[in-house]
Structures are given as structure tokens and as C-alpha cells.
């Protein structure tokens, strides 16, 4: 297993290199220029050109790429063109906020999706199934930013139960305070995934309930809930693990929207600002980081797979 | 299964705990800026200024750099206004002295002597002296440093010199007469020499992360992506500020920021005119529209490959086809938030006059002019920033109104980066129309780069040798009466030539919680909201 993990990790290097080339090319092909993000009409052309030169933006694109690679190898991922701070430092500073939000959202989605999906599948076409299906449809169709504003309005403005935005009350350093601030963004991010998971688990449950081992359990007089949660669940969990690995990309995309709306100080909102300012070292840093998460997410899913079902053997 | 679920619950709690703990690396502080509920904001107003309390200002992004030599974005400039004191400020032609006690031009107007107030200190207790002023100007002028302000300190191609006379006196030596020099000096917020003197790259210096200024509030803590808090500077030369602290809360989404405002989590916030009614309905806020000295205008690109707008008559005809009042209603919802504009100067500028020739709202005359210019079946390309509501609304209006005079307008929607790149590229020839705006400051010389032949920001490619001469003469004319004549004439000529269609002097709308007083004394100011935050108090 250890050898396999090392081999898989080594395989990520050429993949990340490829991603970096594609990402850099796309940024350079896109219209815009980081200097333009701070140009004002009363700035003189000489100043604009001097700043562009000092930032190395007048060099050919391939040289800019190699300069970035050099910075990355040195371990700082380059410097932001806008605020001139090392990119790695900015990512690491915001990583805990994003990890906390993503981790709790995915966990919340799984906690709720498993029983809801099982119950819906076991009660196919009954009112419970229809209700859960309806909620899933809403979850799939509703735009995250709209849901965020709606919940914010309801829980912060109308009910005064939760803070509307940010990660903490100003000047307060308390995990409980962060938990309180995290409820709304975590719920919004989780809701988008919940819907997809529920539908997947529901159809998987329906398929499992037709299997012979379920009929045997019924014949032995086992309770429906016992069959569902003790026997069917094990089989349903397997595709959920795959789904989790595949969700990493969507999770990053969802986090960008959620973090921006809730002013959650994570990597998503940092990326949004970088894209607006065409700050390519930051965009590159975040893209590589997200790609790494996606690759690692899938690797962890594969490993978990082999734990849940020992019949599955991993091959590098 | 139960074990599994409780495991996941623990995971949820743990992940949130991790993010909470790992961000708690800054010094703990008292809950000075704790959010207030709307009930709290409805307390009865007290008439006398009180000391204590905090103010939370909503800002749209993180500050880029907390160093006034490099701040170009609205948020950094806003925070710097509280952290760093200026030498002096100018409002409606009147000077208010801050660090400076006086600024006196020599008889030949080639030297300006600046006297500093006595007993000035930086936030760390060091004395603020003439050395700091000279160091600030020298670092702006240093080509290796990236200050945006450098070109402002060149007259012709020669640099202004700052020379220390004594600890409290600096002489600014100009290579030639330049009455606009005072407007350049207004932008200077001195930085401390003792902090930065050995830094090779001040812009990248880690010392910018813990700024030492001389303004009414000093740096306390910054949580990237969340907020930045300043605390009262007791030795502020203008008198001890009333508030204990000021926090700039980062709220990137406008809708969310408005909700936080209503919830009392933000006390001061820019408002889009369309949101004013909602916020006003809460009855918890003063709605304060004020002029930013900004002109919104439709730009005619005379350099387009069709050459259509190179003819003055065509530009005048296009202007006649439009109505300022309708445009203001379309883009800004009400004339309360925008005053009709006719001159290229803004009302805060010296020698401004709106009594100039105007082309407005006369479709019949527009058709006549187009015919006399020999233009029929004119087709124009209008570049629009996607997602910019005002631009989109105005572009549709312009398309419809120009169609009525026989001009077809093709709208080209593009991403804002692409739009800016095309707009500021003086070689762009593939479009004719664009909506934009500028804030150029109070001295009319600043507008020279927009309206003189081949100058760096002359995006409409306007060229009139008489205007060139007037603008160049105005830059070096020391006599205010003569200068007034020059710029009055220039405004008239530019209005007659119609290189742009001035639409409105737009206003910025700010909502301030009724829980705060001293707003008038703090002075509402373009870009940075308040000129002097030390005057604001909690009622």
C-alpha cells in the first residue's frame, strides 16, 4: 500500500506540470493585464509602462512562465502581482478556513444524504420519496448564491439567530464563535452536494433492494430498518466514496461562490479576487492547489474503496 | 452506523474548530467591534460627542497595500486616510492643513516652502520631521520603486526637488512654474523614514503589513479576507479621536453587504442607488449622496477605422440624439444621484463652468447635421462591459435613440478585463462608442492628459491645437484670473467640439448608521468616504 501511495503521488507531478502549462497558456490568451486592474485615468502612461517593466510583464510569455516555475521550485509559488506577497503564504493563510468549510460541508452532506437516500429508495414512489425527491430537485436547481442570500436574510435579518457574514465576530477568538459563523456557509455548500448524493443513494438503494441477499433477510423476518442500515448501507456506501472523490472539483467551485457571498476568508474568495485582477501567480497557485486536491481526493477514495470492499485490489 | 454518524458529527466540529484555531494567531483583543443588533442602533441620539465605541465600515475587497505611496485602489486609499495624515487637503478651493502648518510659494512661484506643525509624532512615538517629507518624495521619485505618483512629480521631464531647510521646513523646488503643484502635494501622505530607509523594495516590504502612520488611528490587526481594525492614536495632532476603534469589514458581495448593514454588522457602507429605498426603509441610517468629482460620459473614438467620428458634426449629431435627463434616469434611477454634466471639468475643479455649448435632445437637428456631414446609414460599434448594469442599460438606450436618427449601433459585450484593455489601448480602431468616467482631482491641469493631442490618456483621440495651447498655457500660468480665463475658454472649445458626450457628475451614496455623529466635521470625501475620522463619535 505504501509503495502504491508513493507511486501515485509521483504520478501527480507530470499531471500538475501539464495543468500549470494549460492554465498559464489560458491566462495569457485571455484578454486583460494585471496592470490594468490598477490603472486610473490620471495615471501617466510612463508610470504604467515602468510598473509593467518592474513586474516583468513586458517579457515574452514563456520567460514569464519559467520565472514562475523558478519561484515555485523555490517554494513560494511566486509573488502576487497585485499585493506583492508570496502566493504560498497567502494560500496557507487561507487554507484552514477553506478546509474547515469544505470538510464540514461534505461531512454534513453525507450525514444527511445517507439516511435520506436510503429512506427514499426504500419507500419508492410513496409520499416520503416524493418529498425527498422534491428537496433534491430544489437542491440541484437552486443557485448557491441565491440560497445563500435567502438563508442570510432569514436567519440573520429576520430571526437574528446567526451572523450574516464573516468567519468571526470582530476581535473575538473563540472556536464556538467560528462554529456559529460557519453554520450558514456550511449549510449552503452542503445543500448543493446533498441533493446529488441523495439521488445517487436512492437509486443505488432501489437496485440493492432487488438483490437476493435482501430477499433472504426478509425471509428471515429481519426488520426493514435493520436490512437497510445493516446490510444495504454497506453496498450503497461504495459508490458514495467514488462520488466523494469526484466531488472535489465541484466542491472548489462551490466554495468560491459560498466564500464570496459570506465573506468567508478562504482560498475561493482569494481566487475570485485574483481572477478579477488577472493576478496570474495567484491564479496558478490556486489552480495547482485545487488540482492537487482533486488528485488526492480520488486517491483517498480509491484507498477507502479497498478498505470498505477488501475484494477490490488497488493497482498503481 | 451510529458510530459512523457520530464520527462524521465529530469531523464537522473538528474541521470548524481547526479553521477557528489556526486563524487565531493574532493577539486576542477585546470585543470592541462586536456587531450590534438593529435594536441597539435605535438608541436615542445624544447631542454631545462622546468618547469610546467603534465604527465598522464595509469595504468591497482586501486592501492591496497599506502604504500611501503605492495605494491606488479604493480600499487601500480609504484605510490609508485613517492611518496616515496628509500634509493638507483641499475642499472647494479651501485648504485644510493637517501635518503642514503652511505652504507658501516664493515670488517667482518656483519654490514652495512647507512648514510642518511642531510636536508631530508617528504612531510608534518617533518624531515626524522634514526628513520624513524629503524621504517620502525621494522614494516616490526613485524609478526602482513602483509608486504610481512618480509622473506627477515631474514637470516637463524634470523632477521636483524636496530640500530640507530645518527639522520643520521643506523647500520644494520646481523646474518651472506649475500652479498644479499644490494638487500634486495634496496626494502626499508622508511615510516614516526611520521605518523604510533601508528597504530596497518598499512596495514588497513586510513592514507594510504593520504600518506606522501619523493619522488619527493606528494599526491593530488584519485578518485577510475578513477585516482590518485600527485603534485610536491618543497623540494625534488634531486632538484625541472620539472612537476607540475603526474596523474595515470586507464584504465582497453587495447583496450580502447590504444585509450585514441592516443587521448592524456594518455601520457605514456605499450604496447602489437601487438599494437606497430598502436601506432607508429600516429608518436606521442617514443616506448621504455626495459628489465624488466624477464625470460619467459617452466616449466617441475619433480614431476608429471607419473614421466616422473624426467629423465634429457627426459627434455633435450623436450628442443631439441623446437626452441627459433620460440617461440619468436610465443609469442612476434619479437626478438625486447625478447632476447633468456639460463641461469636461467636474464641479469640484477650479474654474469649472457648466455654462458651455451643449448638444442635447434634438433629434430633428441631429438628422440635419448628419445629412450635412454627408453621413447616411452610419453603423457604429459600442463596446460594453458585461455585467455592468449602468453600462448595459445606457448602451440599450443609446442604441434605441441613435436608431431614431438613422444610426445603427452594434453592441459588443465583453468581459471587463477585455473592455479595459481595448479602451485604454490608444491603437484600438475597431469601435466607436464606450461609456466610461473619470475622477481627476481639483486642478484642471490634471485633465491635460485626456484632451491634448497625442497625450497618454486621450482615448477619444481629440485634437484641437487651440485647446492644446490653452491647456499648456494653463499649466504654467500662475495668475489665477488669467488661469480662469484660459480654462473657461478650454471648456467652451471642448464642449463645442464634442469629443465626448458628458452625461452626469455622479454622486456616491453612503449609508451611515444614525448611531453616529460628527459626520459633517469628518467631511465626506471622494474615494475615501471620510477626510478626518477623528471627528466621528458614537451617540
Would you mind describing this structure in some detail?
Chain A has 316 residues and is an all-alpha fold. Helix content of chain A is 75%, strand content 0%. In chain A, helix 5 (127-141) packs across helix 7 (175-209). Chain B has 539 residues and is of the alpha+beta class. Chain B is 30% helix and 23% strand. Chain B has 17 helices and 23 strands. In chain B, the strands form 7 sheets. In chain B, strands 13, 14, 15, 16, 17, 18 and 19 form a 7-stranded mixed sheet that branches. Chain B has a 4-stranded mixed sheet with strand order 1-12-11-10, with helices on one face. Residues 1-9 and 14-46 of chain B have low confidence and may be disordered. At the A-B interface, helix 2, helix 4, helix 6, helix 7 and helix 9 of A face helix 1, strand 12, helix 7 and helix 13 of B.
What's the tally of helices of chain B?
Answer: 17
**Overall mean pLDDT score of chain A?**
86
Percent of residues of chain A in helical segments? over 70%
* Count of beta strands of chain B: 23
- Gyration radius of chain B (Cα, Å) is 26 Å
Rounded to the nearest angstrom, the distance between the terminal CA atoms of chain A is 10 Å
Strand content of chain B: 15-25%
Domain ABC transmembrane type-1 (chain A): 95-305
Pfam family, one (chain A): BPD_transp_1
Membrane topology (chain A): Multi-pass membrane protein
Family (chain A): Belongs to the binding-protein-dependent transport system permease family.
Amino acid at each position: 500500500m505504501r509503495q502504491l501511495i508513493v507511486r501515485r503521488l509521483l504520478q501527480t507531478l507530470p499531471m500538475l506540470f501539464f495543468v500549470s502549462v494549460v492554465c498559464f497558456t489560458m491566462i495569457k490568451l485571455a484578454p486583460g493585464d494585471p496592470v490594468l486592474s490598477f490603472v486610473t485615468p490620471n495615471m501617466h502612461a510612463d508610470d504604467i509602462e515602468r510598473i509593467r517593466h518592474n513586474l516583468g510583464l513586458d517579457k515574452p510569455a514563456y520567460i514569464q512562465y519559467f520565472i514562475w516555475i523558478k519561484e515555485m521550485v523555490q517554494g513560494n509559488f511566486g509573488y502576487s502581482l497585485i499585493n506583492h506577497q508570496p502566493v504560498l503564504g497567502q494560500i496557507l493563510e487561507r487554507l484552514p478556513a477553506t478546509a474547515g468549510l469544505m470538510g464540514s460541508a461534505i461531512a454534513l452532506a453525507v450525514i444527511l444524504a445517507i439516511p435520506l437516500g436510503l429512506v427514499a429508495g426504500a419507500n419508492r414512489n410513496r409520499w416520503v420519496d416524493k418529498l425527498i425527491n422534491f428537496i433534491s430537485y430544489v437542491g440541484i436547481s437552486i443557485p448557491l448564491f441565491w440560497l445563500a442570500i435567502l438563508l442570510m436574510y432569514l436567519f440573520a435579518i429576520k430571526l437574528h439567530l446567526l451572523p450574516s457574514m464573516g468567519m468571526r465576530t470582530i476581535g473575538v477568538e473563540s472556536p464556538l464563535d467560528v462554529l456559529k459563523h460557519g453554520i450558514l456557509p456550511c449549510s449552503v455548500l452542503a445543500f448543493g452536494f446533498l441533493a446529488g448524493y441523495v439521488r445517487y443513494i436512492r437509486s443505488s438503494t432501489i437496485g440493492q433492494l432487488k438483490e437476493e441477499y435482501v430477499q433472504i433477510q426478509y425471509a428471515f423476518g429481519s426488520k426493514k430498518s435493520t436490512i437497510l442500515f445493516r446490510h444495504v448501507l454497506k453496498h450503497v456506501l461504495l459508490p458514495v466514496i467514488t462520488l466523494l472523490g469526484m466531488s472535489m472539483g465541484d466542491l472548489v467551485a462551490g466554495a468560491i461562490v459560498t466564500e464570496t457571498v459570506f465573506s468567508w476568508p478562504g482560498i475561493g474568495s482569494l481566487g475570485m479576487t485574483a481572477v478579477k485582477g488577472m493576478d496570474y501567480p495567484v491564479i496558478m497557485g490556486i489552480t495547482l492547489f485545487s488540482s492537487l486536491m482533486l488528485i488526492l481526493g480520488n486517491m483517498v477514495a480509491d484507498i477507502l474503496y479497498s478498505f470498505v470492499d477488501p475484494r477490490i485490489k488497488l493497482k498503481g | 452506523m451510529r458510530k459512523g454518524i457520530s464520527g462524521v458529527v465529530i469531523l464537522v466540529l473538528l474541521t470548524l474548530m481547526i479553521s477557528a484555531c489556526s486563524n487565531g494567531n493574532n493577539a486576542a483583543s477585546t470585543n470592541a467591534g462586536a456587531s450590534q443588533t438593529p435594536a441597539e442602533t435605535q438608541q436615542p441620539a445624544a447631542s454631545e460627542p462622546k468618547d469610546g465605541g467603534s465604527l465598522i465600515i464595509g469595504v468591497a475587497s482586501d486592501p492591496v497595500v497599506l502604504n500611501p505611496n503605492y495605494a491606488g485602489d479604493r480600499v487601500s486609499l480609504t484605510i490609508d486616510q485613517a492611518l496616515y495624515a496628509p500634509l493638507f487637503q483641499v475642499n472647494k478651493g479651501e485648504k485644510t492643513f493637517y501635518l503642514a502648518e503652511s505652504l507658501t510659494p516664493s515670488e517667482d512661484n518656483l519654490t514652495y516652502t512647507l512648514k510642518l506643525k511642531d510636536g508631530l509624532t508617528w504612531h510608534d512615538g518617533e518624531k515626524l520631521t522634514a526628513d520624513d517629507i524629503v524621504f517620502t518624495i525621494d522614494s516616490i521619485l526613485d524609478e526602482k520603486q513602483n509608486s504610481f505618483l512618480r509622473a506627477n512629480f515631474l514637470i516637463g521631464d524634470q523632477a521636483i526637488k524636496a530640500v530640507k531647510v530645518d527639522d520643520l521646513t521643506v523647500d520644494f523646488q520646481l523646474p518651472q512654474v506649475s500652479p498644479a503643484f499644490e494638487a500634486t502635494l495634496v496626494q502626499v501622505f508622508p511615510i516614516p523614514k526611520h521605518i523604510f530607509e533601508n528597504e530596497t523594495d518598499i512596495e514588497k516590504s513586510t513592514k507594510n503589513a504593520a504600518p506606522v502612520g501619523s493619522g488619527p488611528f493606528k494599526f491593530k490587526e488584519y485578518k485577510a479576507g475578513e477585516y482590518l481594525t485600527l485603534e485610536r492614536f491618543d497623540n494625534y495632532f488634531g486632538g484625541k479621536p472620539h472612537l476607540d476603534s475603526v474596523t474595515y469589514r470586507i464584504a465582497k458581495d453587495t447583496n450580502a453587504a447590504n444585509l450585514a448593514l441592516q443587521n448592524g454588522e456594518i455601520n457605514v457602507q456605499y450604496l447602489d442607488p437601487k438599494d437606497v429605498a430598502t436601506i432607508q426603509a429600516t429608518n436606521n441610517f442617514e443616506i448621504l449622496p455626495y459628489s465624488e468629482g466624477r464625470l460619467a460620459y459617452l466616449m466617441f473614438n475619433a480614431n476608429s477605422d471607419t473614421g466616422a467620428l473624426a467629423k465634429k458634426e457627426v459627434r455633435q449629431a450623436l450628442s443631439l440624439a441623446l437626452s441627459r435627463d433620460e440617461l440619468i434616469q436610465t443609469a442612476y434611477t434619479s437626478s438625486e444621484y447625478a447632476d447633468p454634466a456639460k463641461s469636461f471639468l467636474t464641479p469640484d475643479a477650479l474654474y469649472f463652468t457648466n455654462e458651455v455649448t451643449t448638444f442635447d435632445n434634438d433629434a430633428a437637428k441631429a438628422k440635419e447635421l448628419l445629412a450635412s456631414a454627408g453621413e447616411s446609414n452610419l453603423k457604429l460599434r459600442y463596446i460594453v462591459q458585461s455585467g455592468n448594469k449602468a453600462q448595459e442599460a445606457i448602451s440599450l438606450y443609446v442604441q434605441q435613440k441613435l436608431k431614431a436618427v438613422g444610426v445603427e449601433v452594434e453592441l459588443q459585450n465583453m468581459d471587463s478585463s477585455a473592455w479595459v484593455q481595448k479602451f485604454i489601448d490608444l491603437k484600438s480602431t475597431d469601435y466607436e462608442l464606450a461609456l466610461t468616467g473619470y475622477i481627476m482631482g481639483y486642478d484642471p491641469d490634471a485633465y491635460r492628459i485626456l484632451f491634448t493631442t497625442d497625450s497618454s490618456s486621450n482615448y477619444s483621440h481629440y485634437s484641437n491645437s487651440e485647446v492644446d495651447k490653452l491647456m499648456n498655457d494653463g499649466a504654467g500660468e500662475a495668475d489665477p484670473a488669467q488661469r480662469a480665463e484660459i480654462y473657461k475658454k478650454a471648456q467652451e472649445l471642448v464642449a463645442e467640439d464634442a469629443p465626448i458626450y458628458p452625461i452626469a457628475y455622479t454622486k456616491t451614496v453612503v449609508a451611515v448608521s444614525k448611531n453616529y455623529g460628527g459626520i459633517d466635521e469628518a467631511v465626506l470625501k471622494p474615494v475615501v468616504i471620510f477626510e478626518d475620522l477623528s471627528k466621528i463619535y458614537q451617540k
